[in-house]
Amino acid sequence: xxxxxxxxxxxxxxxxxxxxxxxxxxxxxxxxxxxxxxxxxxxxxxxxxxxxxxxxxxxxxxxxxxxxxxxxxxxxxxxxxxxxxxxxxxxxxxxxxxxxxxxxxxxxxxxxxxxxxxxxxxxxxxxxxxxxxxxxxxxxxxxxxxxxxxxxxxxxxxxxxxxxxxxxxxxxxxxxxxxxxxxxxxxxxxxxxxxxxxxxxxxxxxxxxxxxxxxxxxxxxxxxxxxxxxxxxxxxxxxxxxxxxxxxxxxxxxxxxxxxxxxxxxxxxxxxxxxxxxxxxxxxxxxxxxxxxxxxxxxxxxxxxxxxxxxxxxxxxxxxxxxxxxxxxxxxxxxxxxxxxxxxxxxxxxxxxxxxxxxxxxxxxxxxxxxxxxxxxxxxxxxxxxxxxxxxxxxxxxxxxxxxxxxxxxxxxxxxxxxxxxxxxxxxxxxxxxxxxxxxxxxxxxxxxxxxxxxxxxxxxxxxxxxxxxxxxxxxxxxxxxx
Length: 483
Fold this sequence. Notes:
Blueprint: H1 3-12, H2 16-38, H3 44-51, H4 55-83, H5 85-104, H6 109-137, H7 143-172, H8 185-191, H9 194-204, H10 211-216, H11 220-231, H12 235-246, H13 266-280, H14 283-296, H15 301-329, H16 331-353, E1 357-358, E2 364-365, H17 368-386, H18 389-399, H19 406-434, H20 436-457, H21 472-477
Antiparallel strand pairs: 1-2
Helix pairs in contact: 1-11, 2-5, 2-6, 2-7, 2-9, 4-5, 4-6, 4-19, 5-6, 5-8, 5-9, 6-7, 6-18, 6-19, 7-8, 7-15, 7-18, 11-12, 13-18, 13-19, 13-20, 14-15, 15-16, 15-17, 16-17, 16-18, 16-20, 19-20
């Protein structure tokens, strides 16, 4: 039997379950991404009391991990091109583990900030490597759903982080109280992350290298084997496509994303702005500050923890909806829907918080009716983000860039995302002191701008092979005529 025919037969035997397995394994980095970024939520009030911090200091400690995220995202692409995708995942697993234990044992705000930055490096690397790896391993007809696993893993990580925090503070009687097994409860909230970090490291030892990395490093036979087992289709033709799209076998450089418009290629600017708008709508204010936010408007500590857990569950539901819809409705339509929902709900929260009164102790308080409206609006806002901007941006970042610049461009876009996240997270405590209505009014404005941006500049990439995404203009020509 001719060799080419053997390749076609072998690749036809490839099972979708194989691609699903490695995608789930890679997305575990997203689980730690979500866990690490949300674990701070339940510890904010306790850290503030333990280290006697002010509003600006709290904002910096909470957001410090995001600086590490930006650095990790920036360099992850180059590291992945040099060492390979799974090896970078192993590095991230070690950093997650060390950060968890270091944060738990921190003696003051300076070393806590240091260990949070170390964890941020791992989060930044995972934010780049997982979507790029999944996009490179997934068949085109499954790429949207498998790419959404990254966001699904992130929201699962957020949920379990908040759930673990809720349980630890519950059995301890509060985040600042001693845990039954010794030490303040908030320290155990950080330490618990070491368990999934170790699991991530072990799983990363057993996943294959990306076929595109293998081709780029002249390991064509290994690339063929990976394609036959995990992707399927015409293996020989796919190898030729990858070779053509890569152009050369040398590692990609950041210089390759330079273009005539403000120094970068147009498609890279689209990725950067998608990343920035994803954060400027304020979603991570909910996941970093929700427990202290609800306490600040009259909820008890226990109810605030429980409300945060429920909100993260809504986040999971929304992400499941996205996985079911993204390859049917497309990326662009979901983004437009999400911007619309977030605009309405954020505006509602801004108006509602403007009705808050100040009690005798100087704390904010919402009436029962206003509190219910704020709670419903907050959860609808999270739902609107979760089934649209949350997963869709990661899918787009994993697939919209041409092969030759994917890792580098994704690194730049992800770095922009983390810097934007840091800006929003750092400024929220000060904005909240001025007025919660100001903060949420600002996020509503960005939701409106994101709607206009998607309508004007974001292409549809549903069903397009990665090798066909040469530039933004080409993608635009095949964009369905949808809103």
